[in-house]
Write a structure and sequence with these properties.
By secondary structure, the protein is α+β, with helices and mostly antiparallel strands. The chain has three domains: 16-397, Metallo-beta-lactamase, Chain A; 421-507, Alpha Horseshoe (Serine Threonine Protein Phosphatase 5, Tetratricopeptide repeat); 520-627, 2-Layer Sandwich (Nonspecific Lipid-transfer Protein, Chain A). It has an eight-stranded mixed sheet with strand order 1-4-5-6-7-8-9-10, with helices on one face. Helix 15 (454-467) packs antiparallel against helix 16 (472-488). Residues 111-333 form the Metallo-beta-lactamase domain.
Length: 647
């Protein structure tokens, strides 16, 4: 009875009557008779791979849509919000599609799209998916129908991995080493592509499990979609650095006979992003800033809060620059929009979506309302509420307004009670004592669960679980509660978060092999100063109490000079200088430094191998590395941490 795989108490449940009623009400409220998106998502279909299955060289499946066959049913089951079911069905379209003359897309072989544009002599690949295997499979499918031709350029529209990770699937080693194929990206691409997920990368990876649901079984009671696409791809990821950076709006390139006009869009969906227009083809590519859903202003995995006001402004600028001419709008997720009038409408509604939510959030902030109060009352205008591409499948309005609040005012709502609250375990124990103990709380929670009052049940039982993590009755009821909240969620990311929380309460954390907190490729791509910053994040402050270490660095291949200073339990560095009082001066190549950071080599070993020349006491670096924390890939989220606090 205790096996979570067979214990009926720990298995997914049916939809509660209140959830079934809520989902039925949404089915009645939205224009499901509008089938335009279904026509657009399948328009131009040429061919696909069976079940969109992609394997690596060892035969391991790195991407497949086979587990999503249950989405073939026309009607959503009570356990899935019908609006999300619709989006999940649309994201099942996969294969090679013709967009218009000379423009093709590979869709559904990854969460993102690869757009292929035919130049005069070859093909230009726009975004290369997440993995080498997926990009190669998509390009081969294109070659099968359009003939084998050289890749004449690669374009990265922005810095997220699903848009550049598969570059080696479209570029050969010779293409890369010779520089024959230009790789074009927005300014500051490398800085953000490698840094955005490094400093807090370990926590982001764990939190992303809640956002995307990779460990949730696919099915009507499980993971159905991610909003932007089905899921994140596995496979081989490698960063190939751009060779040409676009610096300003209006910059132009002639690539294989086609003119590209670029528009910069920093601090929108990514910190470095651009759009571009093809005047000869009248095709506008909006990267990931005008997709078929309301996007995230703050993803659950974590990031810097995105700028809704600037985002709206870029859409407005694109309308001004090309709205009178563009006949096709493509994005690097979802399906295109055809026809000048429809392109204009799509861009206007997306523009006004971000502007409306930004301005109304600020309006209510200035009335003294808090983030949760604003989320509770904000309502979309009817013209946006009824537009399918503004629905919150990925970034729901209820959490996007909180992101805007955070970007504007920060986490603190100015109520002194919230200035220094107790941490979860201490708070849970105190509240449980105030409420008369777990038994009384559970009895009341059961009543509220029966009445469909899931939000308050989740709030209260979360405190019980943090106060008494071994209280199985509380864990199971909280899991059942999260599950019902997931079933009712229109947002795929909300559904994934709720269902994964339920799964972990019932079954514990997935058993995932540990791995290095930073990859070889990432270390190679980071600037030297960024690697010093990464070491600073790993430094255990209490262990460093009272220690002072000063190291000079001289990189023999790049000519860089640094001084690295440990003092006051903080690790700092200065570029372009050495310290007179250094414990040691270390002369080495960047490759050797990478090995030291990855801890595949010690300073002692590197000195013996002749990879480092040193004056002074080089062992101080190995001493510094003993002060570094290693990060566990998995840590508790819906229950207290079992390991002691690292402070």
């Amino acid at each position: 009875m205790n096996d979570p795989q067979t214990d009926p108490r720990k298995l997914p449940k049916d939809a509660h009557p209140a959830v079934a009623a809520s989902n039925a009400a949404m089915l009645a409220a939205l224009p499901f008779e509008d089938r335009q998106d279904y026509e657009d998502a399948s328009r131009g279909f040429i061919e696909t791979l069976p079940d969109a299955t992609v394997t690596n060289a060892q035969g391991r499946v790195v991407w497949t849509l086979k587990p999503y066959g249950f989405l073939s049913s026309d009607s959503a089951p009570p356990t899935v919000n019908p609006s999300l079911w619709r989006q999940s069905q649309l994201n099942m379209n996969h294969g090679l599609f013709e967009v218009c003359d000379r423009v093709y897309q590979v869709r559904g072989l990854d969460i993102a799209n690869m757009t292929l544009i035919e130049g005069d002599t070859g093909v230009i690949a726009v975004d290369t998916l997440t993995s080498t295997e997926g990009a190669r499979a998509g390009l081969e499918l294109y070659f099968k129908h359009r003939g084998r031709r050289p890749v004449t350029a690669v374009i990265y529209t922005h810095t997220h991995t699903d848009h550049w990770g598969g570059a080696r699937g479209v570029l050969s080693d010779e293409d890369i080493s010779s520089g024959r194929v230009p790789i074009i990206a927005p300014n500051l691409f490398m800085e953000f592509a490698v840094s955005e997920n490094v400093i807090a990368g370990n926590a982001m990876l764990r939190r992303a499990q809640y956002q995307f649901g990779p460990f949730i079984p696919r099915g009507a009671r499980g993971q159905v979609d991610c909003g932007l696409g089905k899921s994140m791809a596995a496979g081989t990821v490698a960063l190939v650095a751009p060779t040409d950076l676009v610096m300003a709006t209006g910059d132009r390139r002639v690539i294989d006979g086609l003119e590209f006009v670029f528009q910069m869009a920093p601090e929108s969906e990514a910190p470095a992003e651009f759009h571009f227009y093809l005047p000869q083809l009248k095709v506008l590519n909006m990267a990931e800033n005008a997709t078929h859903n309301f996007h995230n202003l703050l993803p659950f995995r974590g990031s810097e809060v995105r700028n809704a006001l600037a985002w709206s402004g870029y859409l407005s600028e694109a309308l001004q620059m090309w709205g009178d001419d563009a006949e096709v709008l493509v994005g690097q997720h979802h399906w295109p929009v055809w026809g000048k009038a429809r392109v204009q409408t799509h861009l206007k509604q997306q523009r006004d979506l971000y502007k409306f939510v930004h301005d109304q959030t600020l309006r209510m902030i200035n009335h003294g309302m808090t983030a949760s109060e604003i989320a509770e009352v904000i309502r979309m205008p009817e013209s946006l509420e009824g537009a399918w591409h503004t629905r919150g499948y990925y970034g729901h309005v209820r959490h996007n307004v909180k992101a805007i609040y955070q970007r504007t005012l920060g986490w603190y709502d100015s109520n002194p009670a919230h200035l220094d609250p107790l941490p979860p375990v201490a708070l849970g124990k105190k509240l449980l004592a105030y409420m008369g103990g777990a038994e009384r709380v559970l009895a009341k929670a059961q009543d509220d669960f029966a009445a469909g009052e899931f939000r308050i049940v989740a709030e209260v039982l979360n405190h019980v679980v943090f106060a008494e993590p071994g209280n199985e009755a509380a864990r199971l009821l909280l899991a059942d509660t999260y599950e019902q909240l997931g079933y009712a969620s229109e947002s795929a990311t909300w559904r994934n978060a709720y269902l994964f929380g339920a799964q972990e309460l019932r079954q514990g954390m997935p058993k995932v092999p540990s791995r290095s907190p930073i990859s070889n490729d990432t270390v190679r791509a980071l600037r030297t100063g960024q690697l010093f910053e990464y070491l600073g994040v790993r430094l255990n402050g209490p262990k460093a109490e009272g220690k002072t270490i000063v190291l000079n660095w001289e990189f023999t291949d790049s000519g860089e000079r640094f001084v690295l200073n440990l003092e006051n339990c903080a690790l700092t560095h200065m570029n372009g200088r050495h310290a007179a009082n250094a414990d040691a001066t270390l002369m080495l190549g960047r490759k050797t430094f990478n090995e030291l950071v990855l801890q595949t080599s010690t300073m002692s070993d590197a000195l013996k191998a002749g990879k480092v020349r040193a004056t002074g006491d080089a062992s101080r670096f190995d001493e510094l590395m003993t002060l570094m924390d290693d990060f566990e890939r998995m840590f508790e989220i819906v229950e207290p941490r079992t390991r002691p606090d690292p402070a």
